[in-house]
Design goal:
Layout (H helix, E strand, L loop, with lengths): L3 H27 L6 E5 L6 H17 L3 E5 L6 H8 L7 E6 L5 H4 L11 E10 L1 E6 L7 H10 L5 E4 L5 H13 L4 E4 L3 H8 L7 E4 H9 L3 E6 L14 H4 L7 E8 L4 H15 L2 H8 L4 E2 L4 H21 L7
Parallel strand pairs: 1-2, 1-3, 6-7
Antiparallel strand pairs: 3-10, 4-10, 4-11, 5-8, 5-9
Length: 328
Amino acid sequence: MINRRKLIKLSAASVFAPTIISSGALGQSSAWPNRPVSIVIPFTPGGGADTIARLVAQKMTEVLGQQFIVESKPGAGGNLAAQYIARSAPDGYTMFLAGDHHATNNHLNPNLTYDAVKDFEPVSLVVQYPIAMAIPANSPFKTLADFIARAKAEPGKLTYGSPGHGAVPHLSAELFVRAANIKMTNVPYRGAAPGIQDLIPGRIDSFWNNVAPMLPLTNEGKLRMLGVTTAKRSPMVPDLPAIGETLPGYDVTGWYALFVPAKTPKDIIQKMYTAVKAAKEDATFRKRLEDQAMIVICGTPDELGKFHKDELAKWGPLIKAAGLEQKS
């Protein structure tokens, strides 16, 4: 039989038990990181995502005194890596360097096993970069207006290529077609290299891709860029007109940002952001990325959360209107 004194003790224990558990969890958070942290990238090593992740990992290692390592999980346009992160423990030891695909894949593939918003917590927008529209060096078009005029005169004759179905360069071209009220023929490629190889001799009329890999070819006279997709001219290529100068309201930027699994403790996320912010203030860090035509941002978790939702809202209607969704 439980007497009154024992009942009081049991009641007190039940009241204070959650506090004891919570204190333990907080202790683990405050000790973070006490073992290596993985930064997962959705592409193979050697590309832009790999470079960004390694620079971020190096700086976070310096700031937080624990090793940050880059782990590559390529496949399915970034979906394999995203699915892996969504299913990872929310303990701060698995981070995700996601690209702009993290705002388009939910619209492109209705059968995804994760939600780009609900299954992730934002940490920081790291960089943004412009996409460019390039044409062969011997193309007759001197300006964007020239190109649009020909496209209107001969609907569907001019072609455009991009490095991947549903990727932001592809969507940049689709948005351009609708903003200019023209018709063009899409020539899909798997990667930038084969598309640029077809662009140089004029087998396609235009190619849309990140500025960085096309800038050396432009300087060598092998191709020409007609415009960047940002609303204003990019400081990376200040002499190149913005498409928005010809088509007001047109604005597209590529980006990379850091996310973690949903329910990761807020104090851990704040420590992560503080370390990324320190990277932005590092002149060497900025220079390494600016040399690749990237603009270092390093915004707050709340700023990334809003930006990500705005990107999701921006691309959904376009993907649906263009019929780019993967069929079930």
